[in-house]
Write a structure and sequence with these properties.
By secondary structure, the chain is an alpha+beta fold. Helices cover about 45% and strands about 15% of the residues. The chain has 4 helices and 3 strands, in the order ααααβββ. It starts with a helix and ends with a strand.
Length: about 130
């Protein structure tokens, strides 16, 4: 395993551990807004993102009350990893319009500047909170 890959896994794991701080400590406000200046883009965040999601799964399975494997936690961890790699990203929150019969009533996802946003077909019935 290369040093770059080990570093990515360490970034992913530590980012997953930091999610409750951002959610419970009021840091979600900084994640839904434009991040402002970021360090120059460096490297590929794919391995770090994969490691962060895996760590969230493990922490949620452990039954620890501060971590959950929900869309909000996954969106926050993706946003944090991307920002760490210098990619402009923010968390989007959406809620269903009353009476639209959406299968979900709220959803969170991460958007990024370079067009890596998720397919919005399933999100069309949601009102994005700003």
């Amino acid at each position: 395993m290369t040093a770059v890959r080990l570093r990515a896994y360490a970034i992913g794991a530590t980012t997953a551990l930091a999610v409750p701080v951002h959610l419970l400590g009021g840091g979600i406000g900084t994640l839904v807004r434009d991040p402002g200046p970021l360090p120059p883009a460096r490297g590929d965040p794919t391995d770090a993102h994969r490691a962060a999601l895996r760590m969230l799964q493990l922490l949620a399975r452990a039954g620890l009350p501060w971590w959950r494997n929900t869309c909000l936690y996954r969106a926050v961890v993706e946003c944090l990893v991307l920002r760490r790699y210098g990619v402009r990203s923010r968390v989007q929150l959406g809620v269903a319009r009353p009476g639209e019969g959406s299968p979900i009533s709220a959803h969170a996802w991460s958007t990024r500047e370079n067009g890596g946003d998720p397919s919005l077909q399933t999100l069309r019935s949601l009102v994005v909170l700003r």
